[in-house]
Design goal:
The protein is of the alpha/beta class. It has helices spanning about 10-25, 80-90, and strands at about 5-10, 30-35, 35-40, 45-50, 70-75, 110-115, 120-125. It is about 20% helix and about 30% strand. This is Catechol 2,3-dioxygenase-like lactoylglutathione lyase family enzyme. It comes from Lederbergia wuyishanensis.
Amino acid sequence: MIHHIELYVSNLKKSIEFWGWLLDELGYSVYQKWDKGQSWKLGETYIVFVQAEERFLDIPYHRCRVGLNHLAFHARSREHVDEMTAKLEESNVQILYKDKHPFSGGPQHYAVYFEDPDRIKVELVAPGSGGENN
């Protein structure tokens, strides 16, 4: 089990707005808050978002560079994936691989893929889905 994940972000306010509602929907609750960061916790695992220092903002994040490619979360069901997809679209969040959605990861993989404000790819996957190819 993962203890915690810490992500440095380019705009903490935007990241808190984006991740706050999403993590709330997934059952996480606010865990810690301070001037330069905030975290959410579910069980024993927590996710931390920290404002990156100005001097490190010159090279933007890209998931194809060495490092994190994406974060994948469990959905409760296929219906939950569909509900979250609708909420993302209502919030003008771009759905990735729209031409293959909700089977973008393959014919047995029911999920929605999207990006956070820093373009970190996020996946919400239904129970019973197979391995992912994106």
